[in-house]
Write a sequence for this structure.
């Protein structure tokens, strides 16, 4: 572990203190590079990420106290910062931990082994912390880069707490607009009660829930069908729902079109067997009669011929009607 | 045994055609035609001689009151006259044939166009064998 510590930055204007700390450091870490800056201004010229650890004196000529700690922490990013101070500043040194420093050391009590332990702890803690931050970042990316619209809503106020990029581009609202809206703002009047009932439902258990398909409205007024799945989560201390809204409008349009098509096909099948067949059967019957011997006075050849003509015209009309119905079936019209 | 033949069809020309075949095939000399089921039912209910069996050649696709309506009403009203129904339809749907089988009084099912062969088929129907014994 100690081998990984190669470079330390000491921010200290007091030469005596600096020499003392350097001695201690060299005693416990071999081949250590020690840099010193005496002011905050000088510190800003350094690249903090080159160092394994930064030791910070709380009173510099150009900056001190909380201000100094905050600025140094911000500038040093992921490098651990250990505060060095005298007795008089002990109270603030402790407070600096809550600001984000790794540790504090009282100069009067400092010994090589205490310094060594503090540095090693600080570096290792920071490592674990960085890993956590990385994994959190990965999860955030999973949310923000998801190809499906996702958002987080507050269970109590129904407000949007976060939305991913796909939701922004899909619904047409900007992130700021979303964060100013509630879930009811993306729903038609008729669906608001249903949404409220589900969101304010008991919500126990961590498993994913699929309450079904809902109607949402985009910013441009377009109505879409979305399949909702959600999880109860804790979002920055609030009870929240992480929601995934999969747009199935097109799927539904296709199902609708197929159902209409089925109805039309059934109609056509019925026409084929009942309506087309009637004049055809009549025609065939009439032709049969003609081929029979002898003439029935009730059924003259002239009359039969007239009926044959009528039947053929009827058949023609029916077939045109079917063609017309077939042309109405056009599933390709869905864009 | 005595019997009469009734033809129920909404098309005059079909009635004429079937009549022609019934006579020519010597199935019956004087078949009666009805342009709708209601007329045929009225005729049946007014018959006084209850010993003559009525053989009804019934079309299915008729406007307003179709062959199924006729069969339903015929089974509901308990007519004391013996009767048989033979369906003559232009439908070639299996489902129509299956539906016809559900009626007890349906003794035969013929698909249009009607021909002389159909007349022979009627004569050979097992349930009607009593009427068409070789003379």
């Amino acid at each position: 572990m100690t081998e990984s510590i190669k470079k330390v930055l000491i921010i200290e204007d007091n030469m005596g203190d600096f020499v003392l700390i350097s001695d201690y450091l060299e005693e416990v870490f071999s081949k250590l590079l020690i840099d010193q800056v005496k002011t905050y201004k000088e510190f800003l010229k350094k690249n903090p990420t080159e160092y394994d650890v930064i030791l910070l004196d709380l009173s510099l000529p150009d900056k001190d106290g909380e201000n100094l700690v905050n600025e140094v922490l911000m500038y040093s990013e992921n490098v651990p910062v250990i505060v060095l101070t005298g007795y008089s500043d002990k109270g603030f040194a402790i407070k600096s931990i809550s600001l984000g420093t790794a540790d504090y050391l009282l100069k009067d009590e400092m010994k090589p082994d205490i310094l060594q332990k503090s540095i090693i702890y600080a570096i290792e803690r920071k490592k674990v912390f960085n890993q956590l931050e990385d994994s959190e970042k990965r999860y955030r990316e999973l949310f923000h880069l998801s190809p499906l619209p996702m958002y987080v809503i507050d269970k109590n106020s129904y407000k949007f707490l976060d939305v991913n990029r796909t939701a922004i581009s899909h619904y047409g609202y900007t992130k700021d607009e979303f964060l100013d809206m509630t879930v009811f703002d993306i729903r038609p009047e008729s669906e608001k009660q249903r949404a409220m009932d589900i969101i304010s439902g008991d919500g126990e258990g961590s498993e994913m829930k699929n309450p079904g398909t809902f109607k949402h409205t985009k910013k441009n007024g377009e109505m879409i069908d979305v399949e909702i799945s959600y999880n109860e989560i804790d979002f920055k201390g609030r009870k929240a729902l992480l929601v995934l809204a999969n747009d199935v409008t097109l799927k539904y349009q296709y199902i609708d079109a197929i159902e209409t098509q089925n109805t039309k096909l059934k109609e056509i099948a019925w026409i084929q067997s009942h309506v087309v067949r009637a004049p055809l059967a009549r025609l065939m019957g009439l032709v049969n009669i003609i081929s029979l011997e002898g003439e029935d006075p009730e059924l003259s050849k002239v009359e039969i011929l007239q009926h044959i003509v009528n039947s053929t015209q009827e058949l023609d009309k029916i077939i045109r009607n079917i063609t017309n119905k077939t042309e109405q079936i056009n599933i390709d019209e869905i864009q | 045994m005595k019997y009469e033949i009734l033809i129920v069809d909404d098309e005059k020309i079909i009635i004429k055609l079937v009549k022609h075949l019934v006579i020519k095939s010597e199935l019956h000399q004087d078949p009666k035609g009805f342009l709708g089921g209601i007329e045929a039912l009225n005729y049946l209910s007014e018959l006084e001689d209850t010993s003559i069996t009525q053989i009804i050649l019934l079309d299915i696709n008729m406007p307003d009151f179709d062959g199924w309506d006729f069969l339903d009403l015929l089974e509901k009203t308990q007519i004391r006259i013996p009767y048989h129904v033979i369906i003559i339809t232009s439908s070639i749907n299996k489902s129509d044939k299956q539906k016809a089988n559900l009626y007890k009084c349906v003794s035969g099912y013929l698909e249009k166009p009607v021909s002389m062969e159909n007349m022979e088929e009627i004569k050979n129907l097992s349930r009607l064998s009593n009427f068409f014994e070789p003379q």
Summary: The interface with chain A takes residues 11, 13-14, 16-17, 19-21, 24, 61, 90-93, 111-116 of chain B (CB under 8 Å). The helical segments of chain B are 12-24, 37-46, 67-76, 94-101, 116-124.
